[in-house]
Design goal:
Oligomer: homodimer
Strand order of the largest sheet of chain A: 1-8-3-6
Largest sheet of chain A: 4 strands, antiparallel
Shape of chain A: globular
């Protein structure tokens, strides 16, 4: 687990080996079964999480029981609820495993030590936050503007591997369309090819 | 103009007077007519922008000519396109004035000097970025989950003053619903009260 994370850091940063060792020394390891929760709506998000393998989803559930998926986090990505983590307030979302998942995670206090002591790691963390901002803004515009067809085509293009890993209802919940509409869109596409 | 910005900084930060003076000394002033663009899709966003009075909208336009509004920025708020500004690449959105607007703006190089020289200002800027992240995530979940009725009610609650300032077509473009649907929702609400 740590070897994969080490290789991720080596590929994506110029951190010296001793910094990488320090970051890893604070990491905790956890395995989640399919459908197991990292935390639920109303709980406080206390950790920075790196997905080693598997996939998590960040979502909320509306009064009618419908699930709305903000984000999928597959291997080699980070996840958390930023507002709950930063302000230590109850989260408005849940994070749960879509498939058996292994994560590394850091206590907030430990992660803050790393950010303070390793300025290069702070820059890298800031980059990840920035990319998340760009992604969120794009996602809002897509949610506002695209037709169901465009949303689905865009999803297939952006996450080609996810189609085989996710149940259709989760893809629909991510795209903000009904399962019925998604099924119709997919059927129309299959006819075309 | 500068007096209002000074009072904004005094209210929202603990910056010492000399830091406030330094921030203001780098600020440039500009007035925009209604519908005037700050920059268009494809141009590079080169400035940090603080709205002194009036209102800006951040939007893109789809192939069919439909406008999709990411954000309104009224007085005492900041705006820019983060990805274009950070990476100095062409912006995927435009920013234009909804009403006659006065802004203060900073060249990127100047703003970076301020962030480096005034750590307290850097913290404040980071807070604003964080709030933008929380807001974007909420906005995605709302776009996915709410009905047109809920979206409109939520908008009225969140921005009570905006109804009188914005044409209906812009509110519809922000909510991601058609003007026809918005008109129906408003009509149904008026009947109820």
């Amino acid at each position: 687990m740590h070897i994969q994370f080490e290789s991720y850091l080596r590929t994506n940063t110029n951190l010296p080996p001793e910094a990488i060792s320090q970051i890893i020394s604070f990491a905790l390891l956890r395995s989640l079964r399919r459908n197991e929760y990292l935390f639920s709506t109303g709980e406080i998000c206390r950790h920075k999480v790196f997905v080693v393998s598997g996939m998590l989803r960040t979502f909320n559930t509306s009064a009618d029981g419908g699930e709305h998926i903000l984000q999928f986090s597959a291997e080699n990505s980070w996840t958390l609820d930023p507002e709950s983590y930063d302000r230590q307030i109850p989260s408005l979302v849940s994070i749960a495993a879509v498939e058996p998942t292994t994560i590394l995670y850091w206590q907030k206090a430990d992660f803050n030590v790393l950010l303070t002591e390793i300025p290069q790691f702070k820059s890298f963390a800031d980059q990840i936050i920035s990319r998340n901002i760009y992604y969120s803004r794009q996602r809002i515009l897509k949610a506002l503007s695209n037709t169901a067809e465009e949303k689905y085509e865009d999803f297939v293009k952006e996450f080609p591997g996810y189609l085989l890993r996710l149940p259709l209802r989760m893809i629909a919940a991510y795209l903000g369309i009904s399962l019925k509409t998604l099924t119709r869109v997919r059927h129309a596409q299959l006819q075309r090819y």
